[in-house]
Write a structure and sequence with these properties.
Blueprint lengths: L2 H4 L3 E3 L7 E3 L3 E4 L8 E4 L4 E2 L16 H15 L4 H14 L4 H20 L6
Antiparallel strand pairs: 1-2, 2-5, 3-4
């Protein structure tokens, strides 16, 4: 088990519907365990998983198995890394937190498409 998979210190921001805040740093090994390439998402970083309201019955924006993957995805995008790359790391991250493989695949594809569309239309989080 890694520092990433043990992290449970993230909470809904008071007054927000789906925005979370990290209570500690998380460390994620890019590409594979022991790759030597670590991403650190700092304590107090805010993040969410952008699930359209009409799909929340299918994927809760409060699912703790996927929220830290969303933090990693968002951080990689902030670092100006490619949408496909960030979505692939999201996929790896949610698998590491025991999201079933088929569901993780569906979430990967959905995240990739949703992020690509939002970026191409320059839609930001509201």
């Amino acid at each position: 088990m890694s520092i990433y998979t043990q992290c449970e210190d993230f909470h809904l921001v008071p007054g927000e519907r789906t925005l979370y805040r990290l209570g500690c740093d998380i460390v994620w090994e890019i590409g594979a365990p022991n790759s030597g390439w670590e991403l650190i998402v700092k304590k107090d970083t805010t993040f969410d998983i952008s699930v359209p309201r009409w799909l929340e019955w299918l994927q809760s924006p409060h699912d703790r198995r996927v929220l830290l993957g969303a933090a990693i995805h968002d951080e990689l995008l902030l670092l100006k890394l490619d949408t496909v790359f960030a979505s692939a790391e999201f996929h790896r991250a949610i698998l590491a937190r025991d999201t079933p493989p088929f569901r993780a695949w569906i979430l990967f594809v959905s995240t990739l498409v949703w992020t690509a569309v939002r970026r191409s239309l320059k839609i930001t989080r509201s």
